Amino acid sequence: MPIVTNLDVMMAKRKVSLKELADRIGISNTNLSLLKTGKVQGVRYRTLDAICKELDCQPGDILEYRSDE
What we know:
Elements: E1 3-5, H1 7-14, H2 18-25, H3 29-36, H4 45-55, H5 59-62, E2 63-65
Antiparallel strand pairs: 1-2
C-alpha cells in the first residue's frame, strides 16, 4: 500500500510509549498498535487530531505517501 504510517517514529522522537499515548488519546492499545503498524483501512480525523495534539506534530509527520513505482 502506498500510504505508510510513521507513528512509531514520532512516538520514539517524543519518547512516548504505546500505552501512554493510547491512554492520553482515549483509544485501546490494540487499536493504536494496529494503526502504528499500518494494519488499518482508515483512521478517523478525531483520532488523528488527538495523536497530533499529544505528539505536537502534523498529520504529514505520521502519514506518508510512497509511490508503488
